[in-house]
Amino acid sequence: MTKLTIVANDGTKFEIDAENGSTVMENAIRNAVPGIEAECGGACACATCHVYVDNEWSETVGAPEVMEEDMLDFAFDVRPTSRLSCQIKVSDELDGLVVHVPERQA
């Protein structure tokens, strides 16, 4: 299991044991993290699972692919560390990952 911390917009921290191969979005939904809507269910067809990757982790997580970048154009308050949580696959190298939920989704 990989440890994830998802920080809701009100500062509430959700410490989650995530299965490798799952996505950050799937774990957020399973743990009822407020602010992650995931309307498309993880198909990278909306921008309602937008998160900010903590600065410490942005290099490890990496940049979005072209399709994800296109969807981020529809997200609210996009920043350099913005990612769609449905596109971040959990793996051992992400153990300890911290992401932050924006004020609202698009």
Automatic annotation (TrEMBL):
Boundaries of every 2Fe-2S ferredoxin-type domain copy: 2-105
GO molecular function list: 2 iron, 2 sulfur cluster binding; electron transfer activity; metal ion binding
Cofactor(s) named in the record: [2Fe-2S] cluster
Coiled-coil region(s): none
Alphabetical keyword list: 2Fe-2S, Iron, Iron-sulfur, Metal-binding
Alphabetized InterPro entries for the sequence: 2Fe-2S_ferredoxin-like_sf, 2Fe-2S_ferredoxin-type, Adrenodoxin-like, Adrenodoxin_Fe-S_BS, Beta-grasp_dom_sf
Pfam families documented for this protein: Fer2
Leader sequence segment: none
GO annotation, biological process: P450-containing electron transport chain
CDD domains for this protein: fer2
SUPFAM superfamilies: 2Fe-2S ferredoxin-like (SSF54292)
Family stated for the protein in its record: Belongs to the adrenodoxin/putidaredoxin family.
Name the UniProt record assigns to this protein: 2Fe-2S iron-sulfur cluster-binding protein
